[in-house]
Amino acid sequence: MNRVLSFFGAPVVLFARTTRAGAREGISWRECMVQLHELGGRSVWLVMSGMAFFGAVLVTIANSQARRFVGNVAVLGPAYFELLIRELGPVVSALLTASRAGAGHAAELSTMSVNEQVEALEMSAGDPYSDLVAPRVVAGLLGVPLLCTLGTVAATLSAVAVAGLAFGVDGRAFMDPRYVDGWDLLAAGLKAGACGLYIPLAAAVAGLRARGGAEAVGAATTEGVVTASLGCLLIDFAVSLAFQLLRL
């Protein structure tokens, strides 16, 4: 029970403290740009290549199912495109980002914690929430939606290429937006934004808690990745369920 309360409550408490500290102390936009490069710039290759393989796998599965039930994989294109835009593009891209950026944030902050650099920052009139956490949160809010967009584009283009080259069908069917509406885009944006907020908070909670030595750094890094990834899946489920209940 304590772990469940910590999973949901700790990022909320950290966000409240970070917001209050950022409003009081201000946020270094230069540091925000540095963190945006660390999160977005260093993750873009992983997200785009991973999503390209993901799109190819989905089309291969769609082709297998189409042969059994409808006979033409191109028929599934519009439904596939809606599913990719609304569900799979944001959440899988966010998971890939969490695996890299979440580990990086948690490892960096846990190393600072075990080396007592966080305490030294506080003794020199600094605030770890505004100086360390806030720039990472801003970078997540900006970087993860952008990475989700690029990942969805990569998955779509790979699906078009694989459909045309491997299965001999018009790949443009997998870019057919007839079923995509504003609610799909809103759901995708909410998932990407919420994951962008949660990933750095989950990693910061794990990193700032670390005490001890190298073993604590490793444990915090693992915890940051696991918590951030599970949080992305929970966000995906919560947003999807809310839209289903509202019939949107």
UniProtKB/TrEMBL annotation:
Membrane-crossing segments per the record: 44-62, 137-167, 188-208, 228-246
Alphabetically ordered keywords of this record: Membrane, Transmembrane, Transmembrane helix
UniProt keyword Hydrolase, yes or no: no
GO molecular function terms attached to this record: phospholipid transporter activity
Keyword field contains Transmembrane helix: yes
GO CC annotation, single: ATP-binding cassette (ABC) transporter complex
Protein name: ABC transporter permease
